[in-house]
Amino acid sequence: MVAALIAWLGFSVFKSAPTPPAASIAASPASSTSSAASKPTAETTAAPSIATPPAAARTVAPPPDAPTTAVNEVLPTVSQSSLNTIRGTIRVSVRVTLDKQGSVTNATATDAGPSRYFARLAVNASKQWTFTPATAEAQRTMLVQFNFTRFGITAESNSAG
Fold this sequence. Notes:
Layout: H1 2-15, H2 22-27, H3 34-38, E1 70-72, H4 80-83, E2 89-98, E3 104-111, H5 116-126, E4 130-131, E5 140-149, E6 152-159
Antiparallel strand pairs: 1-4, 2-3, 2-5, 5-6
């Protein structure tokens, strides 16, 4: 009885083939039967093509620049004996100008802090930084902040506006 039920279910499922979607009928006219060829329907006629302008005539706006982030950050090399002279934190801010490729073209200390020695090291290190390339702007400005402590050096970059 179970075998008969399975056989009946199998025959009823595979007895009628599903009709193909309209896109496959229009895409493959060789698969249509002679009765379908004698009666043109909306499914068998080709859809009108929409004219698109040539690639040279299209104007596409360039995508906006991604946020500028540091790709290569260089920290100044400072001897441990020099770091041991620091009490608290020496903060040095350096304004860097970037070209379109993301390389630093100019670096100046905007807040040198109390030590010209650490300011000079920060400016020289910031000249070696690289940032993400730009697509729209020719020149960008970033602010690189160095923090010198007895335990080491940290740096971060922010957009200077």
